[in-house]
Amino acid sequence: DTQFVIRGGNRLGIYFLENGASARPSQVVYDRKGSSISETAVSEFDFDKILDGADWFHASGITPALSDKAYLLTEAALKAARAKGIPTSIDLNFRKKLWTEEQAREALTKLCQYVDVCIGCTGHFEHSDSILGFKSKSVRSSNSDLNIEGHREVFEKLKEEFGFRYMTTTLRVSHSASDNDCSALAYDGKDFYHTRQYQARIVDRVGTGDAFAAGFIFGLVSGMPWQDAAEFGTAALVLKHTMPGDMNHATKEEVLTLMKGDTFGRVVR
Which of 122, 155, 191, 242 could form a disulfide with 187 if both were Cys (CB 3.0 to 4.6 A apart)? Predict the structure, then answer.
């Protein structure tokens, strides 16, 4: 439904991607200064009307990084959703080429007071420079150390500070730009859950975090137990690694098939 899309401004933002492989990492160059969304005013949107009947509102941590106006737009949308009783989520999505850790921490800490579900990725939570400013005593000892205890410590602090309903993060062991081990951790304020870990051969890394967030949210909205939602999101993330482009084209049935353990990749005839 595109009826509420606003068209205006001088240009659309773009970015350039050089796909990595093996020992060569992917590189991203952003060209988003002065883009339409960065210049949009809150007054241009009727969020009460836009959100009427919505099941969920999700925000990306990239949006408030684009400009002060984009931050205010994100804040206004989250506030409006919260006022209407709509569940909200945010993917922290820190991009150091768009803003500093200090800027991100200040903005995201303010936004998280309107968020029910906080989503992150490896490095957002368990490191001493956690994006939301909470440190853990546990230190990640190696690339293969998922530091579950460090996540537990920070999640407990976040629950106390923000009252999130759920916190979840993807966990990644990077053997190279071509091969990663992928899983996720989720927390409901009481129990921690670590999903199945998959070996992923990467066709395109871009959009995999979004695929996880979408899968986790879909699971919750469709009534799955939160542990199953985390498994669904993880399987969606793994399938996205196999597809070129930003979008995850896997069907619900394909995700469920992978969740059941079919990782052999046989031709379906």
Answer: 155
Residue whose tokens read 């190279």: 176
212 close to 184: Cβ distance less than 8 angstroms: yes
Sequence letter at residue 220: L
Per DSSP, what are the bridge partners of residue 14? 31
Q: Taking residues 194-204, what's their average pLDDT?
A: 94
CB 57 within 8 A of CB 82: no
Question: Using CA atoms, how far apart are residues 263 and 16, in angstroms rounded to an integer?
Answer: 32
Structure tokens at 141: 């000892």
What would the two tokens of residue 19 be? 């796909």
Longest Cα separation, the chain: 53
CA-based nearest residue to 50, from 2, 12, 113: 2
Amino acid at 129: D
Q: Look at residues 84, 30, 42 and name the one whose alpha carbon lies nearest to residue 206.
A: 30
Average pLDDT score over residue span 5-29: 92
| Residue owning tokens 């949009």 | 40
Could you report the per-residue pLDDT of 137-170, keeping only the tens digit for each?
A: 665 656 666 778 888 888 999 999 999 999 999 9
DSSP 131: T
When pLDDT is averaged across residues 51-69 and rounded to a whole number, the result is 96
Q: Are 130 and 147 in contact (CB under 8 A)?
A: no
Contact by Cβ (8 Å): 51, 240: no
Distance CA(99)–CA(102), nearest Å, equals 8
Kindly state the tokens that stand for 7. 């068209």
CB atoms within 10 A of CB 109: 15
> In the chain, at which residue ranges do the beta strands (DSSP E only) sit?
14-18, 27-31, 57-60, 88-91, 117-120, 166-174, 179-187, 192-194, 198-201
Cα–Cα distance measured from residue 251 to residue 253, given in angstroms and rounded to the nearest whole number: 5
CA geometry: angle at 89 spanning 106 and 238, to 5°? 110
